Description:
single chain; alpha+beta; four-stranded antiparallel β-sheet; 13 strands; 20% strand; globular
Amino acid sequence: MNTGxxxxxxxxxxxxxxxxxASPKHDLxxxxxxxxxxxxxxxxxxxxxxxxxxAVTVTPSVRGRATIFDADILxxxxxxxxxxxxxxxxxxxxxxxxxxxxxxxxxxxxSGDAYRRLKEAFERLAGTRITTNIATGDTEVTSGFGLIEAxxxxxxxxxxxxxxxxxxxxxxxxxxxLARSVLTLNRDYFGLRRPLERRIYALARKHCGQQPxxxxxxxxxxxxxxxxxxxxxxxxxxxxxxxxxxxxxxxxTEEPGDIIFVSRRDVVxxxxxxxxxxxETLEQxxxxxxxxxxxxxxxxxxxxxxxxxxxxxxxxxLGWLRxxxxxxx
Length: 329
């Protein structure tokens, strides 16, 4: 029986990224803390961030700090490794991936210029150094590391365009994967072209999650976002995001006292009356019932739930599944 837990590969082995349309996932620490630059030009400032008991120093290379768009590479790698873990396959922190698949999965064009920018992103990820005491899993240590340890172009076309790339993740990122310290992102995240919108979505996903809402002061949100803008400018950018109302899954509202309220959008029901479940919920179901067709389970639950639609479909489906599995054991 597939338990969803896979042993790691040996030090010299590598993991091939071959899961089509794997659910995008990001590590919790990167979503919680401002590790990535929101700047659109090379950001060579050293970031010193302290919040509660967490201290982070981010030191860029001469090419600048890794950007929030560079983080798409990590999201792709984490997503592939988590898909393998859920399938019971062995994994490694050294991955071989196809550049074209990476670009498509993260909503990017596949022009020659896109491959050039991808190479620059690898260089910034490898050159950006993190010093922190953030815990990954159950372990808290103060350490320094790059976001990726190494990368290399394995194969090129005759025109010089990269085809196959090898990436070695840092131990820190890899431990987060093994500890399953990750969250699923909405695929529409990759369609957000404004850096601050991406950062606000990540914070909303981390702090609001499945809760009804999350209240945060503009001052704290400014700090956690990593934005270098003055508070008045940052507040104006937040108001623009509120007016655009383009964040997947979440909606922002300004409240008195310089407070921002982040709320989950209403439960979505499609035209056929079907309650829509998140990809994260379906993956939890796969882990709970390995080897069982989760879509067949979902269809069975839909017939049951349609009589009296629940206010929280994801929680209701998982609760129904637990009772069903307990009854069958």
